[in-house]
Amino acid sequence: MVLGLRSKSRKSVSVQVDYFIHVQEVKPWPPSESLKSSRSLLIQWENGDQNSGSFTCGVGDGRIGIGESFRLPVTLCREVSRKGTTRESFLKNNLEFYVYDARREKAVKGQLLATATINLADYGVIKETITISAQVNCKRSFKHSTLPVLYVNIQPLDKDSSSSSPMGSLLKEVSLDKSESYSELTNEGNAEETEMASFTDDDNDDLSPHLSQTITSFAFEARGWSPPKRNQVHNIIAFLC
Protein backbone atom coordinates (compact mmCIF):
# COMPACT_ATOMS: atom_id res chain seq x y z
CA MET A 1 0.00 0.00 0.00
CA VAL A 2 2.81 2.38 0.75
CA LEU A 3 4.44 1.72 -2.61
CA GLY A 4 1.15 2.38 -4.37
CA LEU A 5 0.75 5.72 -2.65
CA ARG A 6 4.27 6.73 -3.55
CA SER A 7 3.72 5.80 -7.19
CA LYS A 8 0.54 7.87 -7.33
CA SER A 9 2.34 10.82 -5.77
CA ARG A 10 5.10 10.68 -8.37
CA LYS A 11 2.62 10.71 -11.26
CA SER A 12 1.17 14.02 -10.06
CA VAL A 13 4.57 15.77 -9.97
CA SER A 14 4.64 16.95 -13.61
CA VAL A 15 2.20 19.17 -15.53
CA GLN A 16 1.83 19.18 -19.32
CA VAL A 17 1.09 22.61 -20.86
CA ASP A 18 0.96 23.93 -24.42
CA TYR A 19 2.22 27.42 -25.21
CA PHE A 20 1.83 29.51 -28.35
CA ILE A 21 5.03 31.57 -28.52
CA HIS A 22 5.09 34.77 -30.59
CA VAL A 23 8.57 36.31 -30.88
CA GLN A 24 8.10 40.01 -31.62
CA GLU A 25 11.44 41.83 -31.85
CA VAL A 26 14.79 42.68 -30.33
CA LYS A 27 15.60 46.32 -29.68
CA PRO A 28 17.66 48.39 -29.66
CA TRP A 29 19.85 46.81 -32.32
CA PRO A 30 22.70 46.83 -33.19
CA PRO A 31 24.40 47.47 -29.86
CA SER A 32 27.57 48.75 -31.57
CA GLU A 33 28.76 50.22 -34.87
CA SER A 34 30.70 47.05 -35.66
CA LEU A 35 27.47 45.05 -36.06
CA LYS A 36 25.81 47.40 -38.53
CA SER A 37 27.13 45.35 -41.43
CA SER A 38 24.97 42.38 -40.39
CA ARG A 39 21.68 43.02 -42.21
CA SER A 40 20.39 39.45 -42.04
CA LEU A 41 20.31 37.36 -38.87
CA LEU A 42 19.34 33.83 -37.94
CA ILE A 43 17.58 33.26 -34.62
CA GLN A 44 17.51 29.75 -33.19
CA TRP A 45 15.39 28.69 -30.23
CA GLU A 46 15.72 25.60 -28.04
CA ASN A 47 13.76 24.02 -25.20
CA GLY A 48 15.46 20.91 -23.94
CA ASP A 49 16.73 18.28 -26.34
CA GLN A 50 13.47 17.65 -28.20
CA ASN A 51 12.09 21.08 -29.15
CA SER A 52 13.99 23.53 -31.37
CA GLY A 53 13.56 25.73 -34.42
CA SER A 54 14.96 28.73 -36.26
CA PHE A 55 13.97 31.60 -38.53
CA THR A 56 15.75 34.34 -40.45
CA CYS A 57 14.97 38.01 -40.00
CA GLY A 58 16.18 41.40 -41.10
CA VAL A 59 17.62 44.38 -39.27
CA GLY A 60 16.28 47.90 -39.66
CA ASP A 61 15.06 51.00 -37.81
CA GLY A 62 17.20 50.18 -34.78
CA ARG A 63 15.69 46.76 -34.14
CA ILE A 64 15.52 43.13 -35.25
CA GLY A 65 12.05 42.64 -36.70
CA ILE A 66 11.07 39.02 -36.11
CA GLY A 67 7.29 38.46 -35.95
CA GLU A 68 7.49 34.65 -35.90
CA SER A 69 5.37 32.17 -33.91
CA PHE A 70 5.53 28.52 -32.94
CA ARG A 71 3.72 26.03 -30.72
CA LEU A 72 5.65 24.64 -27.76
CA PRO A 73 4.53 21.68 -25.60
CA VAL A 74 6.22 21.88 -22.20
CA THR A 75 6.39 19.51 -19.24
CA LEU A 76 6.68 21.48 -16.00
CA CYS A 77 7.91 19.62 -12.94
CA ARG A 78 6.53 20.77 -9.60
CA GLU A 79 9.03 21.77 -6.99
CA VAL A 80 8.56 20.46 -3.46
CA SER A 81 6.66 23.23 -1.71
CA ARG A 82 8.08 24.69 1.42
CA LYS A 83 6.05 24.83 4.59
CA GLY A 84 3.96 27.95 4.88
CA THR A 85 3.97 28.73 1.12
CA THR A 86 0.84 28.47 -1.03
CA ARG A 87 2.34 29.54 -4.38
CA GLU A 88 2.90 26.69 -6.83
CA SER A 89 6.49 26.55 -8.06
CA PHE A 90 8.21 24.52 -10.78
CA LEU A 91 11.73 23.43 -11.56
CA LYS A 92 13.75 25.47 -14.06
CA ASN A 93 12.64 25.03 -17.68
CA ASN A 94 14.54 27.36 -20.02
CA LEU A 95 13.53 28.56 -23.46
CA GLU A 96 16.79 29.76 -25.00
CA PHE A 97 17.36 32.04 -27.99
CA TYR A 98 20.57 32.39 -30.00
CA VAL A 99 21.25 35.24 -32.43
CA TYR A 100 23.62 34.36 -35.29
CA ASP A 101 25.02 36.34 -38.18
CA ALA A 102 23.40 34.72 -41.24
CA ARG A 103 25.61 33.99 -44.21
CA ARG A 104 24.82 35.69 -47.48
CA GLU A 105 22.04 34.16 -49.61
CA LYS A 106 21.76 31.19 -47.22
CA ALA A 107 19.77 30.60 -44.04
CA VAL A 108 22.89 29.20 -42.38
CA LYS A 109 24.12 30.39 -39.03
CA GLY A 110 27.49 32.04 -38.82
CA GLN A 111 29.04 33.80 -35.85
CA LEU A 112 27.12 33.75 -32.57
CA LEU A 113 26.29 37.35 -31.66
CA ALA A 114 23.97 37.20 -28.62
CA THR A 115 21.78 34.98 -26.44
CA ALA A 116 18.62 35.36 -24.35
CA THR A 117 16.93 33.04 -21.86
CA ILE A 118 13.34 32.81 -20.56
CA ASN A 119 12.61 30.52 -17.62
CA LEU A 120 9.13 29.13 -18.32
CA ALA A 121 8.92 27.81 -14.76
CA ASP A 122 8.57 31.41 -13.56
CA TYR A 123 5.18 31.64 -15.30
CA GLY A 124 3.87 28.08 -14.96
CA VAL A 125 0.31 27.36 -16.05
CA ILE A 126 -0.95 30.64 -17.52
CA LYS A 127 -4.62 31.48 -18.17
CA GLU A 128 -4.20 34.43 -20.52
CA THR A 129 -1.67 35.97 -22.90
CA ILE A 130 1.37 37.51 -21.23
CA THR A 131 4.20 39.68 -22.56
CA ILE A 132 7.74 38.92 -21.47
CA SER A 133 10.89 40.98 -21.95
CA ALA A 134 14.21 39.16 -21.64
CA GLN A 135 17.62 40.78 -21.58
CA VAL A 136 19.85 39.92 -24.54
CA ASN A 137 23.45 39.17 -23.63
CA CYS A 138 25.95 39.99 -26.37
CA LYS A 139 28.96 37.74 -26.78
CA ARG A 140 31.19 40.79 -26.97
CA SER A 141 31.01 43.54 -24.40
CA PHE A 142 30.41 47.02 -25.78
CA LYS A 143 31.11 50.11 -23.74
CA HIS A 144 28.56 52.92 -23.50
CA SER A 145 25.84 50.89 -25.23
CA THR A 146 22.30 50.04 -24.17
CA LEU A 147 21.66 46.33 -23.76
CA PRO A 148 19.08 44.98 -26.22
CA VAL A 149 15.85 43.36 -25.03
CA LEU A 150 13.88 40.46 -26.53
CA TYR A 151 10.08 40.87 -26.49
CA VAL A 152 7.92 37.72 -26.53
CA ASN A 153 4.19 37.01 -26.15
CA ILE A 154 3.09 33.69 -24.64
CA GLN A 155 -0.49 32.47 -25.09
CA PRO A 156 -2.02 29.33 -23.49
CA LEU A 157 -3.42 26.69 -25.83
CA ASP A 158 -6.25 24.25 -25.16
CA LYS A 159 -5.27 20.81 -26.47
CA ASP A 160 -8.90 19.70 -26.84
CA SER A 161 -10.05 22.66 -28.88
CA SER A 162 -8.50 24.34 -31.90
CA SER A 163 -10.64 27.48 -31.40
CA SER A 164 -8.29 28.79 -28.73
CA SER A 165 -5.42 29.20 -31.18
CA PRO A 166 -5.18 32.18 -33.58
CA MET A 167 -5.43 29.86 -36.54
CA GLY A 168 -8.45 28.18 -35.04
CA SER A 169 -10.22 31.54 -34.64
CA LEU A 170 -9.55 32.33 -38.28
CA LEU A 171 -10.98 28.99 -39.41
CA LYS A 172 -14.05 29.61 -37.24
CA GLU A 173 -14.67 32.96 -38.96
CA VAL A 174 -14.35 31.35 -42.40
CA SER A 175 -16.82 28.63 -41.37
CA LEU A 176 -19.35 31.22 -40.20
CA ASP A 177 -19.01 33.14 -43.46
CA LYS A 178 -19.70 29.98 -45.45
CA SER A 179 -22.78 29.19 -43.34
CA GLU A 180 -24.17 32.69 -43.87
CA SER A 181 -23.59 32.44 -47.63
CA TYR A 182 -25.35 29.07 -47.75
CA SER A 183 -28.30 30.48 -45.78
CA GLU A 184 -28.60 33.41 -48.19
CA LEU A 185 -28.55 31.10 -51.21
CA THR A 186 -31.19 28.85 -49.63
CA ASN A 187 -33.49 31.81 -48.92
CA GLU A 188 -33.11 33.06 -52.48
CA GLY A 189 -33.92 29.58 -53.80
CA ASN A 190 -37.06 29.37 -51.64
CA ALA A 191 -38.18 32.78 -52.86
CA GLU A 192 -37.80 31.70 -56.49
CA GLU A 193 -39.78 28.50 -55.84
CA THR A 194 -42.59 30.50 -54.19
CA GLU A 195 -42.73 32.89 -57.15
CA MET A 196 -42.90 29.99 -59.62
CA ALA A 197 -45.68 28.32 -57.60
CA SER A 198 -47.71 31.55 -57.61
CA PHE A 199 -47.23 31.91 -61.37
CA THR A 200 -48.44 28.34 -61.94
CA ASP A 201 -51.56 28.91 -59.81
CA ASP A 202 -52.48 31.96 -61.90
CA ASP A 203 -52.10 29.98 -65.10
CA ASN A 204 -54.28 27.20 -63.71
CA ASP A 205 -57.09 29.72 -63.02
CA ASP A 206 -57.04 30.83 -66.67
CA LEU A 207 -56.86 27.32 -68.09
CA SER A 208 -59.35 25.58 -65.77
CA PRO A 209 -62.58 26.18 -67.89
CA HIS A 210 -60.90 24.99 -71.08
CA LEU A 211 -59.33 22.08 -69.30
CA SER A 212 -62.71 21.04 -67.79
CA GLN A 213 -64.42 21.22 -71.16
CA THR A 214 -61.67 19.17 -72.80
CA ILE A 215 -61.84 16.49 -70.13
CA THR A 216 -65.66 16.21 -70.47
CA SER A 217 -65.45 15.84 -74.24
CA PHE A 218 -62.73 13.22 -73.89
CA ALA A 219 -64.93 11.23 -71.45
CA PHE A 220 -67.86 11.10 -73.90
CA GLU A 221 -65.66 10.01 -76.78
CA ALA A 222 -64.13 7.27 -74.64
CA ARG A 223 -67.65 5.75 -74.19
CA GLY A 224 -68.33 5.73 -77.96
CA TRP A 225 -70.78 8.67 -77.95
CA SER A 226 -70.07 12.28 -78.81
CA PRO A 227 -72.24 15.18 -77.62
CA PRO A 228 -74.56 16.77 -80.24
CA LYS A 229 -73.63 20.03 -81.84
CA ARG A 230 -75.52 23.27 -81.17
CA ASN A 231 -77.53 23.34 -84.50
CA GLN A 232 -78.58 19.72 -83.98
CA VAL A 233 -79.98 20.60 -80.58
CA HIS A 234 -82.08 23.43 -82.08
CA ASN A 235 -83.53 21.09 -84.75
CA ILE A 236 -84.53 18.52 -82.16
CA ILE A 237 -86.31 21.13 -80.06
CA ALA A 238 -88.24 22.48 -83.11
CA PHE A 239 -89.33 18.96 -84.08
CA LEU A 240 -90.66 18.23 -80.61
CA CYS A 241 -92.62 21.44 -80.49
Automatic annotation (TrEMBL):
Start-end of Acidic residues biased regions: 190-206
Coiled coil: none
Residue span, C2 NT-type domain: 7-158
Origin superkingdom: Eukaryota
Xref: Pfam families: NT-C2
One of the record's GO cellular component terms: nuclear pore
Chain spans, region Disordered: 179-206
Annotated PANTHER family: EEIG1_EHBP1 PROTEIN AMINO-TERMINAL DOMAIN PROTEIN, NUCLEAR PORE COMPLEX PROTEIN NUP205
The protein's name: C2 NT-type domain-containing protein
